[in-house]
Amino acid sequence: MDSWSLDAPWSQMLAHAPEGESLVLGLMSGTSLDGLDCCLARITHGRQLPWRYEIVEAVTFPYASDFQERLRFSPSLLPDDLMALDAELGMLWGKWVMDFLNEAHEGHPRRTERPLLLASHGHTVCHRPGSGYSLQIGSAFHLHAITGFPVVHDFRNGDIARGGQGAPLVPMGDALLFGDYHACLNLGGIANISWGPKPTVEEAPLRQACDLTFCNTALNFFASLAGLSMDTDGQLAAQGKRQEELLDRWSSAAWYQHQGARSLDTAAFQAQFWDTALAERFSPQDLCYNWCLHLADVLERSIRSIAEGQEGKILVSGGGAAHPVLLRCLQQKSDCLLVQAQPMVQDFKEALIFGLLGLLHYFNLPNVLGCSTGTSANHRSGIRCG
Questions:
Q1: Are residues 369 and 331 in the same domain?
Q2: Do 203 and 313 reside in the same domain of the chain?
Q3: Residues 240 and 114 grouped into a single domain
Q4: For the chain, what is the domain count?
Q5: Which residue, 43, 281, 357, 379, has most beta carbons within 10 Å?
Q6: Together in a domain, 24 and 136
Q7: How does pLDDT run along the chain (386 residues), one tens digit per residue?
Q8: Both 220 and 277 in a single domain?
Q9: Are the CB atoms for 380 and 368 separated by under 8 Å?
């Protein structure tokens, strides 16, 4: 069975979930281009809610600056060069995974327990659900050949083929692992949010989600204009001044005309939000600060309909959660309580959840919620290699 009705209760969705616990390794390479997140987690599963997790160990393997540039410009590569990069990335990740599992890290001895599987999000080159596809590289075949572990990958295209956006995919994990929060806000390269009632076995999963706007993709780009890789600790934004022209320009972007399930592609930043003339008129400090204000406005408009006038708790994770100016701007515009995730969850929540999605696929259980991506059914997506 690969699909379940949108109104199927959790008891039906999880009817065949085995009781026990499994060790999985989730891999996430995000649009921020900082590196590969590896999250080794033990997940306790069964037919009851919530599922529990323990992050056993997690680490980020950073990309060298020249490799970051190759990934940044991967959408413009010719097919032969793109396939070569796909294979090279898979081999690099395979080496890093074996290093992660076989070498002792600070505070962690060499591991003897092996994961059941690897779950790889891949690195997104382009995301075009309107055209029927999404492309992530980081060859799962090379990753499997080097590590010997089964690899679950290509989570997005199965949803897109069903008419969905292929994103956001994390709401399944938000529901199963973080359902005590009214909403979960991820501040990665792209800011996205999921929300819904606390799940119970008797009820259908009502977790909705959408991409909000760019986060670190924008802030890192503005920081690069000052010769920096990122706006560390919000030092640039803290020096900026409010610029109504920037806020008006960004709020009128075509992206915000979309309603319902929607997802962003990184190419939309340059196409809809950026103009080289802005670099001549505004400082990197002003650009960073006003993007924090802009993201806060976008979140406030979204929460207005999500919270339905009731106060709630929002779990905040992702690299942007470490940006104090951004968090302050977000909290000032929100009536909800923003709860900053614990450091390991803040940095590795997406890798943790992709490990969960891979595990659900392995158990032949649904791992995509249709009400989050815009499909007519909850379903099982991804491909298993090995």
A1: no
A2: yes
A3: no
A4: 2
A5: 357
A6: yes
A7: 689 999 999 999 999 999 999 999 999 998 778 899 999 999 999 999 999 999 999 999 999 999 999 999 999 999 999 999 999 999 999 999 999 999 866 666 667 789 999 999 999 999 999 999 999 999 999 999 999 999 999 999 999 999 999 999 999 999 999 999 999 999 999 999 999 988 999 999 988 898 999 999 999 999 999 999 899 999 999 999 999 999 999 999 999 998 777 888 888 999 999 999 999 999 999 999 999 999 999 998 887 766 554 557 899 999 999 999 999 999 998 888 899 999 999 999 999 999 999 999 999 999 999 999 999 999 999 999 99
A8: yes
A9: yes
Q: What is the CATH number of the domain that holds 138?
A: 3.30.420.40
E strand residue ranges, 1-148: 3-5, 20-29, 35-45, 52-62, 117-128, 133-137
Same domain membership, residue 284 and residue 334? yes
Q: Per the structure block, which two tokens stand in for 366?
A: 């649904």
Concatenating the DSSP letter of every residue in 56-99 gives: EEEEEEEPPHHHHHHHHTGGGS-HHHHHHHHHHHHHHHHHHHHH
> Which residue, chain included where needed, has tokens 């590969």?
36
CA 198 to chain centre: 21
